[in-house]
Amino acid sequence: MGTQDDDSARFTRLYAQWYGHVLAYARRRVQEHTARDVTAETFLVAWRRMEEVPDDPLPWLYGVARRVLANETRRAARADRLAGKVARQPVQHGPDTADRVTGGIDDVLTALPEADRELLRLLAWEDLSTAQAAKVLGCRPATLAVRLHRARRRLRALLDQRAGSRPSTFPESSKVS
């Protein structure tokens, strides 16, 4: 077994000499983008198994490429079967699960000004503290607290309006650091 430098130099020569042949082999069997992937995978196998590459490497490389192509053919067939299975599934109409769970909160958020949406997202979705959110927005934590209060008030009003004026239970407190 050679040293890492010897293997690297040998691989470089192998790649330079035989890449075009392996690519042509693959192109005669599959489309261009797949042929390039097959060729790359073939040389990846060659790199990993340099000690097994014979002195006359082209037949060995073609054998590897042939197996990579077979794997790709099986993968594509599985993908086609899955796509067919999915296509045969009945389409269900109505609100999706996320809308039922969130109660269409996206619609309510969309009605808020962008500054309010961003502030609420930073705190609720990105899980930032008010001090961290203030840094992101380029303001002082005290300023952010006022903006947060106003954003929550506008959000509560929209939620109440959407729910037919039922009082909402939106928490007043937030992580403060």
Automatic annotation (TrEMBL):
Keywords per UniProt: Sigma factor, Transcription, Transcription regulation
An example Gene Ontology biological process: DNA-templated transcription initiation
InterPro entries in UniProt: RNA_pol_sigma-70-like, RNA_pol_sigma-70_dom, RNA_pol_sigma70_r2, RNA_pol_sigma70_r4_t2, RNA_pol_sigma_r2, RNA_pol_sigma_r3/r4-like, WH-like_DNA-bd_sf
Single Gene Ontology MF annotation: sigma factor activity
Keyword Transcription included in the entry's annotation: yes
Residue span, RNA polymerase sigma factor 70 region 4 type domain: 105-155
NCBIfam families recorded: sigma70-ECF
UniProt-recorded name of the protein: RNA polymerase sigma-70 factor (ECF subfamily)
